[in-house]
Amino acid sequence: MTALTPGTWNLDATHTDVDFTVRHAGISKVRGTFNAVEGSLVVADDATASNVNITIDANSVDTGQPDRDAHIKAADFFETEAHPNMTFVSTEVRAQGNDPQEFTLVGNLTIKGVTNPVELKAEFGGQTVDAFGMTRAGFEAAGEISRKDFGITWNAPLQAAAGGVLVSDAVKIQIDASFVLPAEEGAQA
């Protein structure tokens, strides 16, 4: 990964999107986002020794349909009363190919109280100082998980002729994240 100023960076939730996509009825896709996310990125002198820690408020799920969101928050899916947060804690940053901007982010994802390792293909978008004097860094990450691996197994069968089920097991994840270096650390950069 290309050089990034060492220090502890804070996730800028207003400039971060945590989105997901699942196949619905085998013929279309449902997309959603989480509107409340927080976290930090600790950048080491050796970028591969860096780590990220993210917490997502599961109650902030937004698919654009309030009834569907209520079902996703219920016991069939996230069971947010018992498990209000999802977390991702990285365990490894691995170079990917010859492009220093691309890497694999490995970590432990916890959903509904179940933790599993995941790998996300990631890209460093760069570091800059914005119009307000804040040092920022941007990243994109994407991956796919099996919701069954996290104990989320609810489904409904489709008509016998069509086969299949209402909600796919595979969930695609897309993250666009912006981190800000606190002013005192950014001033040293």
UniProtKB/TrEMBL annotation:
Residues 8-180 form the Lipid/polyisoprenoid-binding YceI-like domain. Belongs to the UPF0312 family. It comes from the Bacteria. This is Lipid/polyisoprenoid-binding YceI-like domain-containing protein. Pfam families: YceI (PF04264). Gene3D superfamilies: Lipid/polyisoprenoid-binding, YceI-like. InterPro entries: Lipid/polyisoprenoid-bd_YceI, TTHA0802/YceI-like_sf.
